[in-house]
Design a protein that fits this description.
By secondary structure, this protein is α+β, with helices and mostly antiparallel strands. It is built from 2 helices and 5 strands, in the order H-E-E-E-E-E-H. It has one domain. Helices cover 24% and strands 34% of the residues. The strands form 2 sheets. Strands 1-2-3 form a 3-stranded antiparallel beta sheet, with helices on one face. The relative contact order is 0.20. The model has no long low-confidence stretch (mean pLDDT 88).
Length: 70
């Protein structure tokens, strides 16, 4: 349901974080009005980067440490 709401408001990108598997899925809205496309699946040792959010860059396992503390 969130995914459809994001697309309706043209949110350009969203991520699904899976702390149990230490992964982050990156979805992009390539064409307005169409479904999001899976762009990347980042594993624990990968660095997350986004062309649409250029100030973001972090190692998945380090970013998930912050999420799991909360």
């Amino acid at each position: 349901m969130k995914k459809e709401s994001y697309a309706r408001f043209a949110v350009p990108e969203y991520w699904i974080v899976d702390p149990a598997h230490l992964t982050i899925e990156q979805y992009l809205l390539v064409h307005s009005g169409e479904p999001y496309e899976l762009a990347n699946v980042f594993g624990a040792e990968d660095t997350v980067r986004s062309e649409r959010i250029p100030c973001v860059s972090f190692l998945v396992k380090e970013g998930l440490k912050i999420v799991m503390r909360k």
